[in-house]
Design a protein that fits this description.
InterPro entries: SR1P. Pfam families: SR1P. This is GapA-binding peptide SR1P. The protein contains one helix and three strands, in the order βββα. It starts with 8 loop residues before the first strand and ends in a 9-residue tail after the last helix. The chain has one domain. By secondary structure, the chain is an alpha+beta fold. The chain binds zinc ion. The site of zinc ion has 7 residues, from loops. The site of zinc ion (ZN) has 7 residues, from loops.
Length: 59
């Protein structure tokens, strides 16, 4: 039985703070996006380092 969908997900979204894999998305090539997870443990950890790493993100 080949009932499982073909996975074309080659992109991965990783939390920039704790490097947890948040999710995947379809991509033509291997791509890594950094985003924020919403894990409470991670959120707490960010506050601790924010004071000494307080430059705004430039996109
Ligand atoms: Zn995180």
């Amino acid at each position: 039985m080949e009932n499982s969908p073909v996975s074309l997900e080659m992109g991965v979204i990783i939390c920039r703070h704790c490097e947890t894999e948040i999710g995947t998305f379809d991509s033509e090539k291997v791509t890594t996006y950094y985003s924020d997870c919403q894990e409470q443990q991670c959120l707490e950890g960010r506050k601790a380092v924010k004071s000494e790493n307080n430059h705004p993100a430039v996109r």
